[in-house]
User: What shape does this take?
Amino acid sequence: MPQAIRFHQVGGPEVLQWEAIDVPSPAQGEARVRQHAVGLNYIDTYHRTGLYPAPLPSGIGLEAAGVVEAVGEGVDDLAPGDRVAYAGGPLGAYAELRNMPADRLVKLPDPVSFEQGAAMLLQGLTAQYLLRRTYHVQPGDTILIHAAAGGVGLIVCQWAKALGATVIGTVGSDEKAELARAHGCDHPIVYTRENFAERVREITGGEGLPVVYDSIGKDTFMESLDCLRPLGMMVLFGAASGPVPPFDLGLLAKMGSLFITRPTLFTYSAKRPDLLAMAADLFDVVTSGKVRIEVNQRFALKDASQAHRELEARRTTGSSILLP
Assistant: This one.
């Protein structure tokens, strides 16, 4: 029988279990995918800990790439043998084999490997909506991306640079600063020894930024607001340090009529035409060489617990994958 990672209670990495699963023939609208690589993302830890609740017991993981083995009734745009990838629900990507809603699958271009497909889609589609839809980055903009050496961060740095922006990024070490710089970050800020809001004001001559992309949450939120110019936009798209506590929305007026949004990939890609357009945009910047997708860590799928420990200890950079 095929194997998968599942969890029966929320908690630390130790709750992840390697179990045999039953994968029936695909139902109407589904495709069965033999997975060649699985993406590791910080949101996976939110499901495991219960920050984002899931009905238990549950599979885990939102992203993978593989080959279609069979399709159910009503699926006419996919066929056995197609190379595909996906990023999004339902949970259960940490598996050797699974059925997926066919309308969530996108075909991989030939130049894109399974490893790249599993490493890039969730993070790359996130970068796409952040840069092209939530706030439409223009040539000459200066932006701030937190966790610039992470998976989303390295893609955002490269893509924003290709769009003609100046990129400021926060990182946790000198090594990560060099990695971010090598991927287009003009001003890496090591937050462990520098106040990033003060540095942003120095870099911008006191003007502030049109946008901040913040996936850290509690530890960076208020200082991120301090980085914005009047009418600037705060884009909170994660909570790696914990959820942001309640705060007085009147502060947004006092700080310059600021905008704030809490977007998710699931909303932006909910309609299949939007998903396909976003994926095409991502594949274009990757296959053209404007954005490099580098897999910096590989773990065996059955060792998902160890992968989560490395991720939460911030010992990873760029993209990580799990190999069935």
